[in-house]
Amino acid sequence: MNESAHAAMRNSPEPPGWARFVVPSATDLLFIGLLLGLSCGVMGRVLLRDADVGWHIRNGEQTLLAHAITRTDPFSSTMSGHTWYAWEWLYDLVIAAIHRGFGLNGVVFFTAAVIATTFALSLKFALRRRANLVIAFILLILSLGASAVHFLARPHVVSWLFTVIWFELLDSAASTHQAGKRLLWLPIMMILWANLHGGFVLGLILLAVYLIGGTIDYFAAPEQRPGIGGWLKSLGGITALTFAASFLNPYTYHLHVHIYRYLSDRFLMSQISEFLSPDFHGAAQQCFAVLLIVAIAALASTRCRLRASRVLVLLLAAYSGLYATRNLPTSSLLITLVIAPVLSAAIGQATGEASMVSWLRHLFAVVHSFGFRMQTLEDGLRGHFFIVLALALGLWACWHEGRLGSSQLINAQFDESRFPVQAINYIASHDIREPIFSVDYWGGYLIYRLYPETKVVLDDRHDLYGDQFIKDYLKIVLVQPSFAEELERMRVDWVLMPRWSSLANVLRLKQNWTEVYKDSTAALFHRRS
Questions:
Q1: How do residues 398-411 score in pLDDT, each as one tens digit?
Q2: pLDDT, tens digit (0-9, with 9 covering 90-100), for 479-507
Q3: Are 26 and 386 in contact (CB under 8 A)?
Q4: d(CA 76, CA 163)
Q5: N or C: which end of the chain has fewer CB within 10 A?
Q6: How does pLDDT run across 321-365, given as a tens digit for each residue?
């Protein structure tokens, strides 16, 4: 932090004693804005635009009832009895308990709270690294835009939160080359993470990154070798302990093997949309592109030398974000945490550059001075009163079916234009018990609404079904020549498809299939004997 920053902080007003516990800070406002913005009104439906949460809820309920973790598939007719790695069983348990007490409103509110906590902590950690408040906030807005593509009520949002905390623990220890007691939280976190979401693999990768970065620093800075060497030994021990902790899950090492086989299956990775590389015509992907450009510009303009580990984190984040769309949120957050202090320092240095055009130098000076004045005010506000109030009001509303007094504050439900809501009502009212074939992205909704009375033929647990089964499924939905034989082989007598899909149009022409129900979203067909 340069002299102008120190002067700005000295001249900034100190908040009165009472204000420290009442006035919301920027971090508080970010949390409250995201919490209410993602859960109230129509935004509650946005978090439910993916049906995965349906089978997560039902699996958690089954675990609660049986007092045992699910090990074979209970939801489909085709994989019934087959081994199923319910690797997110702990999330399923939590989300089922929330659903039991608060319904879908509680599920959405919980998801919004996790996302809000993730980004609020990211801002707090960036400021702790001496980032300018204005700069950090702008970068976080870009991260929010990039992450919006995966604002969904699914367990991956827990991985976002764990990634941010994980990075903070690792990087803060690496900056002083002292492990301390803080790193002992990593094995404890890993026990939880490995049972909440498969994203725990990223935690292990980050440990490897810091080991490699520390080794590079060890050979690049001979005068610091004693301190770096001790740090590497401590980090190596923590890494071994954390890796061992990842095996404390119901499936032990089989989970690691399963995840590896799943992520290395080229066919599945090429068919699942969220594993494909980003399409930069979308707004979220463009936010990530802007974030990458800002990162490159910050690295090119700064006089500060980044540690090897931070450079490797940036490379990892950039590569993973460009590799798969589902990585955009964690990649954006990691880039923001590394680049925010670098860009802040670069702008602070630019205020003293006489060669820079005057208007730009003046703009940088205003941003630099204002940001650090606001940061001083931010550091003095510790009450978080409005966060507690927002959480309390949200929980009260969830407990009362989304209502706060006479107002409908939260109204979380699956969108009828996206999911076959009315068609499922027809199936339930006519007591159809035979398995139903549908598109994979509707499977979670069918399980949520119809299980245990009616099973699905398949859903979007692609790692369970495997690539050959998905190939056969694609033959059907793409109406390839053998589609009728595949339906016969799967013993399908009921088909629920989007109303104007290719399969629905073809089945309408088949004499042995009858369209028994249709609405603006879905069509239900029955095979005649």
A1: 999 999 888 888 99
A2: 999 999 999 999 999 999 999 999 999 99
A3: no
A4: 33
A5: C
A6: 999 999 999 999 999 999 999 988 887 776 766 666 665 666 666
Q: Which amino acid is at 111?
A: T
- As a whole number of angstroms, the distance between CA 272 and CA 473 comes to 13
Residue at 132: amino acid letter: N
CA–CA distance, 257 with 87 (Å, rounded to integer): 12
**What global pTM score does this model have?**
0.92
Each residue of 488-507: b (16+ CB within 10 Å) or e? Answer: eebebbbbbbbbebebbeeb
The DSSP output letter for 274 is G
Give the angle 195-199-203 at the CA atoms, nearest 5°: 95
Encode pLDDT of 46-55 as tens digits.
899 999 999 9
Query: Residues, the chain, total?
Result: 529
Per-residue pLDDT averaged across 169-174, rounded? 92
Could you count the other beta carbons within 10 Å of the beta carbon of residue 392? 10
With residues binned 3-state (H G I as helix, E B as strand, rest as coil), the percentages for the chain, rounded to 5, are 65, 5, 30
63: its two tokens: 């675990």
Q: Which helix (H) or strand (E) holds 496?
A: strand 494-498
d(CA 73, CA 56) in angstroms, rounded, equals 13
β-pairing, 436-438 vs 407-408, is unpaired
Residue 130: pLDDT band (50, 70, 90) is confident
CA–CA distance, 101 with 80 (Å, rounded to integer)? 29
What is the phi-psi region of residue 338: left when phi exceeds 0, alpha when psi lies from -120 to 50, beta otherwise? alpha
Per-residue tokens: 357: 């055009």
Report the candidate in 331, 342, 336, 338 with the shortest Cα–Cα distance to residue 309: 338
Alpha-carbon span 206 to 430, nearest angstrom = 52
Token digits of residue 367: 């941003």
Return the amino acid letter for 66. Answer: A
Spell out the domain ranges in the chain. Answer: 25-386, 421-527
Q: How confident is the model at residue 384 (pLDDT cuts 50, 70, 90)?
A: confident
Dihedral in degrees, nearest 10, Cα atoms 156, 161, 166, 172 = 150
Q: Please, are residues 152 and 50 in contact by the beta-carbon 8 Å criterion?
A: yes
Instruction: State both tokens at 221.
Output: 């800075």
Question: What is the average pLDDT across 181-202?
Answer: 95
- Output b/e per residue, 182-192; b: 16+ Cβ within 10 A: ebeebbebbbe
- Helix/strand/coil for 523: strand
pLDDT, tens only, 417-463: 999 999 999 999 999 999 999 999 999 999 999 999 999 999 999 99
